[in-house]
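Provenance and format

Records in this collection were gathered into a single text stream. Each protein contributes a sequence line and a token line. The two records reproduced below are adjacent in the stream.
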Amino acid sequence: MSHRRSRRDLICDAALDLAAEGGNHALTHQGVDARLGLPRGSTSYYYRTRRALVSAAIAHLTCRSSEQFRDAAPSVPPKTTREAASLIAAQLEVLLGDRRRDVLARYALMADAAGDDELREGLASCLFSFPAATALMDSLGASDPASAARDLITLLEGLVFDFAFGARKLGADSSHADGTETLRTSIRLWIDALAVTK
């Protein structure tokens, strides 16, 4: 039986589409209505304010990330840094490929979160899970798993930005396989260091 998506899910997806394609200023109630072919005022029925719409879109993004990670996570946690690096690199590839829209939308919505602690917290945790990173670093033997997890997430945030917008994106003339190996190697080296020093 096919799963029918709710109107709220459709609205949140349309909001993310608009933000990814046109920046945060493109995300409006009328824009979502037009995107979905809904009568004017339909989106505001569900989310009265723009902030409520942005907050719902961020929560939707977090839910998507959790579902994707849960589906991809192995039944047994990685036992070595090499295994962990391969798992994480695969997740980053999904973010930079199939979920590129989500990455672009997240960056676009950062302007909305600049003066709003709740939105900022939501954006900060919508792609990477601190509890999951902490559990991983603990399983790999880090003496301070929480600190190591924060450092790992900082690395991953930097890699995502670099491959999406940074120097690696500007110089993207290497093969997909080269990019994958670069991700895997960078992550493994960092995890090796964090597992020893943190």
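Adjacent record:
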Amino acid sequence: MVAAVSLLLAILFVPLIEVFLFIQVGSEIGALPTVALCVLTAVAGAAMLRHQGLKAMTEARARLNRNEAPVDQVFDGLFLALAAVLLMVPGFFTDAIGALLLVPPVRRLMQKQILARTRFVMTGRPGPGQPGSQWRSGDGSVIIEGEYSTSADRPGSPGRRPEDDEPPLIGR
């Protein structure tokens, strides 16, 4: 209920704050420079987001390869995605919040706040080729994946007819 009320208040007040800030900035520097500043913040934010997003993805992959939970990188990705949305929305208030989300210490502080209120559990099992990775059937026996062939399957082997090596014809 509290989250719904908070969301409703944000939906109502954020546009009002944006309009107020547009009027204030526009009256100080003019209409065209105000619009140009909005576009500039979106472009600069997108560039910073691209750099930091690629870095977070690389770090997450490295942690997964070491069989470690990439908690920090997942939070970075979520906060960076939110920053991208906020930076693309025209307005100075949303740009300011989006810019704050691009600052790593701010993201860490928010992550600590979220982790203090929630509990996350990483589950799963190792994939093929990783330590401890054995696929088991329903009765518990180990499944070994592979391919096999018999001597009759090889071209030119005894018991094999020459027409077996020809591609099938439609209507035969």
